Amino acid sequence: MGHTMRRLLLCVLAGILPFTTVLADISTDLASEQPMAIIFNNAVEAGDTIENILGSVIKSQSGLGPEAVCTAVTLDPENAANLAEFAVNSGLTASTVVTSAMQCAPDKAPEIYTKMKELGMPEDELLASAIEAGQDPTALLEAAAAGNPIAPLVAAPGQTSLPTPLTFGEDDGGGGVASPN
Asked: What is the pTM of this model?
């Protein structure tokens, strides 16, 4: 084998090894039953993203998906709702993801609630999972309602002005007195 061929082979192997090492490390860490924080730490140090690590753990079918969700949202709480969505799209049940994510990123529960609702999770399941996570469902419902302001009035198609608001007690013919009937 020529010098150029060896150099090419070495470059190809050097380019491939970092990617296989990250996957092997997650697999090895899972097989050796390392704590989830160690698994994430090792993979992040090897250059992997939190989302990729979460996906790898979920796809491993190790049963550690909920723990991985918890670790992921703890490490990146600002991205908790998106990580929860990613976990659901990777195969975990929405109720499991909601419970785990809300337990480990309680300050992000309203965002997680809203994201899961947008994904079509039934509200009764969503609220049950939130309660299981120790969240106050009333606070989540209020936060969701506050996050959905009423749309401003606009003219209907083909109309040039806004509708006239209804007024009560001003020339409505009733005189402001209720009928005894």
From this structure: 0.66
